[in-house]
Amino acid sequence: MEGVKSDRWGYQVKTSSDSCISAINAYYHQVLSYGRERHVILEAPKHDKDCVLGNILAAHFLSSTDASTAAFLIQAAKSRLEESTSYEKAVFDSVSYLISQDRDDDVAVELHSKLLKKFPKDLVSLKRVQVLCFYMGRPDLSLDLVQQVLPYNQQEDYVYGMLAFPLLELGRMTDAEEAAKKGFEINKQDFWSQHALCHVLQYECRFKEAVQFMEECSSTWGSCSSFIYTHNWWHVALCYLEGHSPIRKVIEVYDNHIWKELEKTDAVYPEVYLNALGLLLRVYLRRELDVFEDRFKIIADCVKDQANWYLEWHLDLLILPTLAITGELSKAEELLEGLKSRLSKMTKKKQRLMQTGIQLAQSLYEYGRGNDKKALELLGPDFDANACKVIGASDEQLDVFNEVWYSMLLNTGQAAKAIEVLEKRIKKREGNPFTWRLLERAYSMAEKQEAVSVGEKARALEAAYFEQPVAT
Asked: Which pLDDT score, from 0 to 100, does residue 98 have?
């Protein structure tokens, strides 16, 4: 057909420009590979100002950073919608609704589901709706969608990484590992498959194996976005920390890979701060802050800048305790009040969903300023961080808030409750020495003789992963 070209998926796009379709296909690759050059989609409307697909994808890319230009691109796409292909119309409908104000997330998912039923090879639309499901805290929906298109993409790059992630979020670790390995076999540079496999190994406390695998893969990460580059290194650092390697290994990863990302001219600072803060809060909980104290103060000075606020709920909830711990109480309070204000402007449906997030924010503020009793009252006796998925964090990222809760229990003398929850925790992840250390502390507080054997177990695990001598 004259004036129509096929994109990477083989779907028809109304354009006569080879450069326009090349920019669209390059954008597909950047999205699926978590690349640093997703801005390539802005070239598509330059090469063909009338291409509906190029305009709407560019609008989606700019929607969170340049609303006025995004609105112009949406209007440009809409003005040529009648002349576009059925594929472009379906993408326009799903994307324009996704970036509309006061959208209903369930409707946005349904629009993408309909799109994928007609055009199941469009893995970028699958990735887009999986990101939405992630922020909804709905890995079940995410899994349904990838399973819907899987029969049409059996040997396609990237689809198995997208399958693995919701599986591991649903606790199906064996299936997640199988999917991640298959994705890695198809494409050794599928960073999402690498990431999913590390998740599985880390959850199963195979820390040394996880570190070895990820460090072997790390030479391929140069093209990654600031987020996935520092996030993959965050996993490495966390495996060193959880496996009780010498703290200098954690420092090396933080300094040479996470913080150093900020030196790149195209670094996205908030993406780096998210992973840096997620690591430093774990360090703080393990009472290793003395060797990280300067770094903690440096990042606190960076994130008190309001330019880093209200971008991601997860980031805000890491900034809050950091500011409070480092004495920036007025800034922490200002951030917390801003979050409450944002909540009040949401739809009633969204407010109900985000209630757990705001309660966690209030608790983290109190915790950071040393008010453990108030912080614990806000979270309650049956807190589970997995109930806070709507802040936009994986199980592994959320787990630090469980650790904060355990700390609150111990700091307020709730030894019996701490023993109860830590014993349950150990049944799920028996190989994590930090949990055994917390249980040892709880038993000691309760003056139980089990503290001795639990302490021995902790020391044995600490020595096992990275071949350290057992402490006596």
From this structure: 97
